Amino acid sequence: MAAPILRTKRLILKALEEKDADRLFAYRSDPEVYRYKGWKPRLRAEAVDFIRRNTVEFDRPGTWFQLGIYDRDSLELVGDAGLHFLEPEGLQVEIGYTIAPPHQRQGLAGEAVREVIGYLFRVMRKHRIIASVDPENAASLALAESLGLRREGHFRKSVWNGDYWEDDVIYAILAEEWSGTSGAIPGATDHSSGPTEGGGGPG
């Protein structure tokens, strides 16, 4: 299946491209960004490999797919969103996101994630969407709750980050809950499809 191209009032979301490697590496290698992430690149080549691995096939159970989040006017890469299509049936999706520091606190994460969730439920007919959040990441906790995701569990020292064990908070929402509480997605203008380019990784 081809990865979609999603448009909101301020953003375009589509498959990451190798030409985005410099920009992706610039913000993903920032310690203030990767402190809450499983992927912590140290070399530009890792960003290239990340894009290649995580844009291979959209909607394949057991894989991640990484969408770039672009400013709609300038087409600058301002962040990325990872979709993990869970096995075995692929009807559940884990979602993660990253916004580059200069573009944080502008509501872009909420705008992007709301559009992605709406597409997964309304167009792809997914059953359940989950988010795995570091309990110290207050902004992501607030975002999940603002979107109507339900806090389902807090797992103590369940994630190894390469240096030590961290807690993990799981949020989730069902398709019927989204349609019943979220309604139309603000800022959404179309759901045109585009070519797939690449493969998956942690958001």
UniProtKB/TrEMBL annotation:
Q: Which domain of life is it from?
A: Bacteria
SUPFAM superfamilies linked: Acyl-CoA N-acyltransferases (Nat) (SSF55729)
Pfam families cross-referenced by the UniProt entry: Acetyltransf_3
- UniProt entry tagged with the keyword Cell inner membrane: no
Instruction: Offer an example of a GO molecular function term for this protein.
Output: acyltransferase activity, transferring groups other than amino-acyl groups
Q: What keywords tag this UniProt record? A: Transferase
Classification via InterPro entries: Acyl_CoA_acyltransferase, GNAT_dom, N-acetyltransferase
Residues in domain N-acetyltransferase? 11-176
Annotated region Disordered: the residues are 183-203
Q: What is the protein's given name?
A: RimJ/RimL family protein N-acetyltransferase
